[in-house]
Fold this protein.
Amino acid sequence: MQPGLWLVLAWQVAALSALHQPPKSMMVLTNQMVKLSCEMKIYTKSTPIYWLRQLQGPTKDSHFEFLVSWNPTKGIVYGEGMTAEKLTVSSDTAQPILNLTSVKPEDSGIYFCMIVGSPELIFGKGIKLIVADVLPTTAQPTKKTILKKKPCRVSNPMAQKTCGLVTLSLLVAGILVLLVSLSVTIHLHCLQRKARIRFMKQ
């Protein structure tokens, strides 16, 4: 590979890692103050910094809205409709910060920091900001109460013995009733047979 191509690739890798925006996303309540940082790894305090906002996800129809810029010679320049009461920029060494005051749901979007490279623009990966009136809560799963059936226990041995005798007595009585019913049925059958035989002999 030619030395010139190595230099181009090295510059592209450095450009991609030049700006770092932690965290990737954050959710805050309405009217809170938000601080968005942009770590500049290979640039100095004298580097101009720009802050942009994308109101929707990256698509072919999405566009960037210029918010504010900081320049060591020109100072702070605000975009259309932006004021110092709404947002401010502090440029610390290697970490410019965008301060948003009293945020509203309409301030939700993806915020990018940007610097002017040579010859291209270098963007951070962006911070997705979500402003909500109420933060969502995670519903806790409800636990089903399982009722365990307890076996019937008789603590008194005498009562348990009496219960057993009653059950046995009922069983014996049932058997006796069946035997009596069977005997009566057989006796009636025999009488009917004898009567039929006498009738046939006459």
Remarks:
- The chain is about 30% helix and 30% strand.
- The longest strand covers residues 64-71.
